[in-house]
TrEMBL record:
<dbReference type="Pfam" id="PF01812">
    <property type="entry name" value="5-FTHF_cyc-lig"/>
</dbReference>
<dbReference type="GO" id="GO:0046872">
    <property type="term" value="F:metal ion binding"/>
</dbReference>
<comment type="similarity">
    <text>Belongs to the 5-formyltetrahydrofolate cyclo-ligase family.</text>
</comment>
<protein>
    <recommendedName>
        <fullName>5-formyltetrahydrofolate cyclo-ligase</fullName>
        <ecNumber>6.3.3.2</ecNumber>
    </recommendedName>
</protein>
<dbReference type="InterPro" id="IPR037171">
    <property type="entry name" value="NagB/RpiA_transferase-like"/>
</dbReference>
<dbReference type="InterPro" id="IPR024185">
    <property type="entry name" value="FTHF_cligase-like_sf"/>
</dbReference>
<keyword id="KW-0436">Ligase</keyword>
<dbReference type="GO" id="GO:0035999">
    <property type="term" value="P:tetrahydrofolate interconversion"/>
</dbReference>
<dbReference type="InterPro" id="IPR002698">
    <property type="entry name" value="FTHF_cligase"/>
</dbReference>
<dbReference type="GO" id="GO:0009396">
    <property type="term" value="P:folic acid-containing compound biosynthetic process"/>
</dbReference>
<keyword id="KW-0479">Metal-binding</keyword>
<keyword id="KW-0460">Magnesium</keyword>
<keyword id="KW-0547">Nucleotide-binding</keyword>
<dbReference type="GO" id="GO:0005524">
    <property type="term" value="F:ATP binding"/>
</dbReference>
<dbReference type="GO" id="GO:0030272">
    <property type="term" value="F:5-formyltetrahydrofolate cyclo-ligase activity"/>
</dbReference>
<keyword id="KW-0067">ATP-binding</keyword>
Length: 194
């Protein structure tokens, strides 16, 4: 394991503990309400959310409202080392357990999102995002942004998940903004890490 991999592993452990504490305290729905405010101007654009697992902050109330105004999709893992695909979702959609325990729509059309609400373990104000280590969102965002540079990545997290500076690699895709229960954090214009 390289020094950077050890640093990321330590950052993940610390982030999991902070997120668990924030989840236990709850946010009274403030995070989803703030997320909906940010998403409303994008009504009608193809939107991808996520099904919350374990102690992740819950975007489903905002996703349900956005599904009334345009296409909403959820990520589907099709294999290690591959980018995510996104299947159409609505609050009434039947879901099944997918890889790693995340619920996914049983069926539905495949959608190419323009706006993504991205789960995370930790974020920093440079736009850095620490995930679980599989690289799914990094590969996915890289491919989507290559096809459409206007693709917007919105990190959604508890405020307690903020880190001073995360260890980043050239393949780590940056977020465009972060929404927490406390604030909307506008980040510097995205730069490639390459």
């Amino acid at each position: 394991m390289s020094a950077l991999q050890r640093e990321k592993a330590a950052a993940r452990q610390a982030a999991l503990a902070r997120r668990a504490a924030a989840f236990a305290a709850g946010d009274g729905g403030a995070g989803a309400a703030r997320l909906l405010e940010v998403l409303r101007p994008h009504s009608g654009r193809a939107l991808a959310g996520y099904m919350p697992m374990r102690t992740e902050i819950d975007p489903l109330p905002a996703m349900a409202e956005m599904a009334r105004h345009g296409p909403v999709a959820m990520p589907v893992i099709e294999g290690m080392g591959r980018p995510l695909r996104f299947r159409a979702w609505s609050p009434e959609a039947e879901t099944v357990e997918g890889p790693f325990g995340a619920r996914v729509p049983r069926e539905g059309e495949w959608i190419v999102p323009e706006v993504l609400v991205v789960p995370l373990l930790a974020f920093d104000r440079r736009g850095g995002r620490l995930g679980y280590g599989g690289g799914f969102y990094d590969r996915t965002l890289a491919a989507l942004r290559a096809a459409n540079p206007a693709t917007l990545a919105i990190g959604f997290a508890f405020a307690a998940q903020e880190a001073e500076a995360l260890p980043l690699e050239p393949t780590d895709e940056l977020l465009d903004l972060v929404v927490t229960e406390a604030e909307v954090i506008a980040l510097a214009p995205r730069r490639r890490n390459a």
